[in-house]
Amino acid sequence: MKKIFFLMQSFILASFFCISNLKADEDVIKDVFISLKRDYINELDNRQIALKGLKSLLKLSKNIELKQTSKKIVLYQNGKMIKQFAMPQDKDNINAWVDFCNNIINEALKTDNNIRPHDFEMSDLFAKSVFEGLDGYSHYFGAFEKEDDKPLKIRRPFASRIIDDILLIKVLSFKKDISKQVQTAVEECSKCQGLILDLRNNHGGFLNEALKIADMFLDEGIITYTLASDNDAPKYYTAGSGDIFYQKPMVILTDGLTASASEVLAAALSEQNRAVLIGTKTYGKGTIQDIKKMGKERAMTVTTAYFYTPSGIKIDKTGLTPFICVGRDGDCTKADRFNKDEDIELAVKYLKTGVAD
Fold it and tell me: What region, left, alpha or beta, does residue 30 occupy, with left being phi > 0 and alpha being psi -120 to 50 degrees?
């Protein structure tokens, strides 16, 4: 009797565990549909999301095939049809599309021994497959994410020194309160006659910090604006009055790894004729991502808007072209110039003489 009770108890617990996992899977997959439909900057329909996600099954097993018609998906194993699944008639019904995807996944789990061991991570694999190849900046971070490709930590995001009477400020990342460090360095060098803001290899960071730095050197005017779509009104970010460096000349150093918030800052100061850009073409990453946490272990970043320069140039995939290019024969091709001291020497000369030759 004890043995029978134990087996029944184990069965109930296993059943509960499977139901809980299935529910969790449905929640993750549903969140992916909702977020991409509601927030993603490029339009995706539910059919596209479903088909991209279901490709995850094909990556797990060479025995599985999914044949698509206009109204159905047919599941094959080893060349033989297993089952047909009718696509939801209502293309906007997210719940119907979530059920549709889960029905196909569950059938594949029952059918193929290569897929079955991955039952606990199918929602993650589905989501990662959907996010692959979207815009390059939208990502899904699953509960079973590998930690191989973590970005390098920047130990010292700020540094400054004086070259003759020129203040050189290097900002490697817009970490919290970096704008206060910039302000302090400028205010402590009241006798300085020029400023070099080195944004080479600066991948971005907190946009707010970049906006604060732009505001320090601009006497009013547009810093940047964002657009979620052509039909939406732009959101403007503007500077207040006052320039803490009193209109003294400025140079901003850029290279092929100057990206995101650093491009916003460089564009604002150059287009308002407040600073001259010297270096190579910037990376061209001009998008905003919203972060959505999904419990303790999962999250996704979804691109929601594009940055534009004050004059209306879209930064993303375009980048900024410096006024003075430092490549061979004046070439402005993207390049890593992080350790090139000659760029600093050129900037000092330009600030002192007004020429770069």
Answer: alpha
